[in-house]
């Protein structure tokens, strides 16, 4: 019987980091023990990239060094999240099995010397991965230090080799049943692409011009299933020897090679990694965006932040620093939204190797440093929050998220390069976050009737089931906002004929989109209500909806741009362009009002983030984060777990966790 709660074993929320002691020696390990106690670390992730040490040659294992570290951590009161090292096969493996190396779409076969250089579809890799997972589980499955299993690291590597081609064909046969059905699904009647034998079908490798979109979409679906199957094999090998929860760290939000809804169903606890892509307030918004997605993947169950950086913001290929205080604010930002603690990558900053300059809990400067002081302060705070363990968060707005729609916007031949799914998803979340409203993400085929408001950005691909689900949602009283370029294609990426969006949804929106008219890069348009749009415009006519704003330019002058339809007992809103941030925020504010959605904690000024965690027995905690440089008086003073005293105000940049509200 699997123990699904990690916090039971830890006696509170988790705090710690990826721990790679094999980079160091005895004196440093001794200092690690002392510093982990100071920082109140109670969980360390071991072994993520340790394959070469654990199995120095095929099927010969060396566990002595790992035994010593696990026992040392255990003696020091630190539990272990033990990883399988399969994200980084050692050089001996690739030399013995060169066919298991990644091949790029252009045919380049990569070599070892980095990490993640394996093809998941290669039989030699899969059996080596099962073997080491099983050997680890056999040895450590019931070790008293073991809190959980961490399979692999950030699954998501793709490959286009011959093993992949063979596995893809097996998957396609199962999905389509016959070559005729595949030809029909992929629209191969055009451009002379018709397949007459399965051997002719390839992964979408480098081509002269546009790749077939159906093939590209199916390839993503195939890889997602392949990744989940590879995870399941390791998980099941572990479960044969261990009753501890098994998970893998998912990488959010921009790493979309997996159907995360499907993957999350396989995990005993959802765990995710998060690195913001802009500093300052944008980083805090990114934390919330990430955390809301992570929680939603597990259907609201408690989850765990498995990696964050103490001082790492990825701005393209530049790594920016976080602001002072962000270590605590980002940690609490995740905990506020349901995380059962916070783990960092990594404990001690490497002195050599590929990630020497990646931030860590103990920086190169050592413990006498701002970073370690903030880490220690954060560890002390997390240690005071044990009573939050197992409590959950409730949201009143859902933003729809569909991996198929994401992949659909990645195929060749679309009318605009600016239909970017990830940006659209984050843009939908941001004004809701600014308004203090807690957001769940939901798949468009999920039951969403409990949310008074549902926002649907960028659902370019919309399955028949999803279209009917959303129609019913509006008919039964929901308020739905559908945004431009949605419902243009069905689940096979075939265009919807007779007008967009998909017919049953169109009924709820009371409109019919007849023509899409993408805008030039940097072109801005003005609507009749004074709001501004960019990227996209549409020629649409109302079929029952009222027009709230019209276009004021070119051939679209006077035609509807933004509409609302009373349908059944609900309302279907349609926005046919991408509004500027402030105009979009105003629209979201209007929808919140119409749908009767209040902020999670009313009465707080802009820039103060607040989320309530609820325990099943009725206890509640408000987690408050002040992102402003001003002190903010609290409308309702209460006992703050951080200071163990009554809190009347939040200091500038400060946080509080108020009990009983
Ligand atoms: C990922 C990985 C870690 C580390 C960090 C660096 O999240 O899982 O091993 O490389 O990125 O940000």
Automatic annotation (TrEMBL):
Its EC number is 3.2.1.23. Residues 607-659 form the Beta-galactosidase C-terminal domain. It catalyses: Hydrolysis of terminal non-reducing beta-D-galactose residues in beta-D-galactosides. SUPFAM superfamilies: (Trans)glycosidases, Class I glutamine amidotransferase-like. GO terms for molecular function: beta-galactosidase activity. It holds the Pfam family Glyco_hydro_42. Residues 395-597 form the Beta-galactosidase trimerisation domain. Keywords: Glycosidase, Hydrolase. Gene3D superfamilies: 3.40.50.880, Glycosidases, Golgi alpha-mannosidase II. Residues 18-383 form the Glycoside hydrolase family 42 N-terminal domain. Belongs to the glycosyl hydrolase 42 family. This is Beta-galactosidase.
